[in-house]
Structure formats: structure tokens, C-alpha cells
Design goal:
Elements lengths: L2 H12 L3 H20 L6 E5 L15 E6 L2 H14 L4 E5 L12 E7 L8 H11 E11 L6 H18 L8 H4 L4 E8 L9 E7 L1
Helix pairs in contact: 1-5
Length: 208
């Protein structure tokens, strides 16, 4: 079984309990992302790895947002959230983050919270996000990345087999995937949890 199919199976299984398990943990990152993206109601926004739509709670209700995910079970929950929040300009589509069918330079903003470590080829995902973003547009990525000191590296190696199998994400994605990406400039790098800097990192990029 490929890693992509394995991760999809994990998230299909987690769909019904995902909000309860991750809602509070991910909420701070979602709020920071929305604050840094400088959203306006006229913008066209793409969320990659939208999952159950947890970020929708923090978005302006008038925003035009398209969410993609490979798990239909997660998208079904997101559709319920769209209806509950009354977001008529929001839609979700089943699609791979590594091979998007959107035209180039389509979106004003692209956000990917907690998904880059759940795809098989993160370089492909970043390349696709840059492609579909308009020149001058902002891209936000939030994820746990591989630690840079001895203790963090050891923790990542120790827990990575468990998180991949049970939770559907890697602990070992290199930050170089973001920091060395072509066609963008890193505007901000910020730990999501100040008291645990390696837990999750927020990047804001601007497309050249």
C-alpha cells in the first residue's frame, strides 16, 4: 500500500472524531494563519488539506474559499460545517494536493494547515501551491517540521513510526522544503506554540 493511500485510510477513519481530537490543538495555528494572510472578502482563497473545515470557524463568512482533500469522509464533515456556518461562497472538492486541477495564478491566498507532513511528496505539494497562487499572493503553511537540535531530532525519530501509522503524518519533514522553495520569499517564520517551539511552525510566503 502506498503512503498516500495509507494516510487517506487513516483520515477516513478519523473523520468523525477529528474535530474533538484536534480542534483545540490546531485552533491557535488557524487563528494565526487568518491574522497573517490579510484576507479581504473579494479574495479567492484555496485551503489545501481542508479536512473537516476547522479553519472555516475563523474565516470571514463572506470569503470565497475552496477546500481540497483526498478524504471524502473528511469533506463530508466539512460540508456540514459550511451549512452550519452559512458560508455560501465556500466549497470543498476531492483532490490531491500534489496534483491540482486548478489553472495557474488562480488564488489570491493559499493556506495549508497541518497537511504538508501528510503527503507523500511535500516538494510537489509546495510547487503546486506556488503554481496556483497569483503573483504577489500569500501562501501560509503550518506544520510540525523535523527538529534541528539533538533532543528534537531524537523525539522525531522515536515517535515518527507511531504518528505515521496512527495519526497519518510524519515527524521528519524538513523545513528546507519550505525555506528553499523556488518562486517565493519567506516573509515570516513563527512557532505556533511559544512554550513548545518545535510543536508546530507557521510560515508566510509571498509569491514572486
Amino acid at each position: 500500500m502506498s503512503k498516500r493511500k495509507s494516510f487517506k485510510k487513516v483520515y477516513d477513519r478519523l473523520a468523525d472524531s477529528y474535530d474533538l481530537a484536534y480542534g483545540r490543538v490546531l485552533s491557535r495555528g488557524h487563528k494565526l494563519a487568518v491574522q497573517n494572510l490579510k484576507l479581504k472578502s473579494t479574495m479567492n482563497v484555496l485551503e489545501v488539506g481542508v479536512g473537516t473545515g476547522l479553519t472555516f470557524e475563523h474565516l470571514p463568512k463572506t470569503i470565497r474559499v475552496t477546500g481540497i482533500d483526498i478524504s471524502q469522509a473528511m469533506l463530508d464533515v466539512a460540508l456540514e460545517r459550511i451549512e452550519r456556518l452559512q458560508m455560501p461562497h465556500a466549497t470543498v472538492i476531492k483532490m490531491s494536493a500534489e496534483d491540482m486541477s486548478f489553472s495557474s495564478n488562480k488564488f489570491d491566498r493559499v493556506i495549508a494547515p497541518s497537511v504538508i507532513s501528510a503527503v507523500r511528496h511535500p516538494e510537489k505539494m509546495i510547487s503546486e501551491m506556488i503554481r496556483v497562487c497569483k503573483p504577489g499572493g500569500y501562501i501560509c503553511v503550518i506544520s510540525h517540521f523535523a527538529g534541528q537540535n539533538v533532543i528534537d531530532k531524537l523525539a522525531d525519530r522515536l515517535f515518527n513510526p507511531i504518528t505515521q501509522k496512527i495519526l497519518g503524518y510524519r515527524m521528519t519533514t524538513s523545513p528546507a522544503v519550505i525555506e528553499n522553495a523556488e518562486g517565493v520569499k519567506v516573509l515570516k517564520k513563527q512557532p505556533v506554540m511559544p512554550f513548545w517551539k518545535n510543536f508546530s511552525t507557521l510560515y508566510i510566503l509571498r509569491k514572486n
